[in-house]
Amino acid sequence: MATVEIPQDMELVYDYPESLAEVDTHYCPGCTHGTIHRLVAEVLDELDVRDRTIGIAPVGCSVLAYNYFDADFAEAAHGRAPAMATGIKRVSPDSVVFTYQGDGDLAAIGTAEIIHAANRGELITTIFVNNAIYGMTGGQMAPTTLPDQVTTSSPTGRDVQAAGHPIRMAELIGGLPGAAFVTRQAVFDVRGIRRTRRAIKTAFRAQLEGLGFAMVEVLSTCNTNWGMSPQEALDWAKEHMVAYFPLGDTRVSEGVHALMEG
Predict the structure, then answer these.
(1) pLDDT, tens digit, 9 for 90 and up, residues 32-86
(2) Which of 82, 92, 128, 155 could form a disulfide with 117 if both were Cys (CB 3.0 to 4.6 A apart)?
(3) How many angstroms separate the CA atoms of 165 and 169, rounded?
(4) Tens digits of residue pLDDT in 214-239
(5) Could you tell me the residue range of the domain that residue 55 belongs to?
(6) Burial level of 103, CB count in 10 A (0-12/13-18/19+)?
(7) Taking the CB of residue 30, how many other CB atoms lie within 10 A of it?
(8) Does the pLDDT of residue 19 top 60, yes or no?
(9) Is the pTM of the predicted complex or chain greater than 0.85?
């Protein structure tokens, strides 16, 4: 990627994060993974922790996340990112450790891993990207697929009588005593992006202060597998996803509340 020269008489107000690698990504045009990557990178820069950060990549659309951050990364087996993060944090407590996981990775095969990591209060941060579908493997129904939502494995829509209801992970994790901060945000517009950034920063600060487990669920889109244009996907998600997955905090410990007030 070419470096842009800024004229001396102009003020630079928006720059490329140091924690983000200057490479092209494999994500589909319109995918919001890129937005979320940037928010994480901006927070790592602002907190000045990039040199001691270790990220854990999942299996799913963001399986190649390690290529896009200029930080140390490890690759976990499907759903096992919280277990790997737990081990790394315990043997290297001064490291800033985070997992970056999709709904198929975290809410399906990795459900037990994330629940027990949160319940133990592991000092890790989880960025959970919920786009209500299996993106990488062809658009199958996920644990977070909405009722009546059409996917390649539910061509007539999700039947909750047969497949159960979509899992609200933020509410599930937020009810565990080991969790210090759990929230659900979205990146469908500028206001939501700003709120998501603040939430991600709070989640990392909770780890730095030793307050407990923190998770930011981020509602996202998958316009390719939804069969929509990028703008149509954003509009659909605002109308349908937020109605089922309400935005806001589901767990704020006293320590995190003090951080947010300070």
Answers:
(1) 999 999 999 999 999 999 999 999 999 999 999 999 999 999 999 999 999 999 9
(2) 82
(3) 12
(4) 999 999 999 999 999 999 999 999 99
(5) 33-261
(6) buried
(7) 17
(8) yes
(9) yes
Residue 11: inside a domain: no
How many structural domains compose the chain? 1
105 within a domain of the structure (yes/no): yes
**DSSP letters for the chain:** -PPPPPPTTS-------TTB--S---SPTT-THHHHHHHHHHHHHHHT-GGGEEEEE-SSGGGGGGGTBSSEEEEPPTT-HHHHHHHHHHH-TTSEEEEEEEHHIIIIITHHHHHHHHHHT-S-EEEEEE-SS-TTTTS---TTPPTT--BTTBTT---HHHH-PPP-HHHHHHTSTTEEEEEEEE-SSHHHHHHHHHHHHHHHHHHHTT--EEEEEEE---HHHHT--HHHHHHHIIIIIHHHS--EEEEE-HHHHHHHH-
Which residues, including other chains, have CB under 8 Å from residue 51's CB and lie 6 or more apart?
none
Domain CATH for 138: 3.40.50.970
Of 130, 208, 139, 221, nearest to 173 by C-alpha is 130
**146 in a domain, yes or no?**
yes
Strand pairing class (213-219; 125-130): parallel
Residue 236: both structure tokens together: 């659909």
Tokens of 189: 């517009």
Determine, yes or no, domain membership for 144. yes
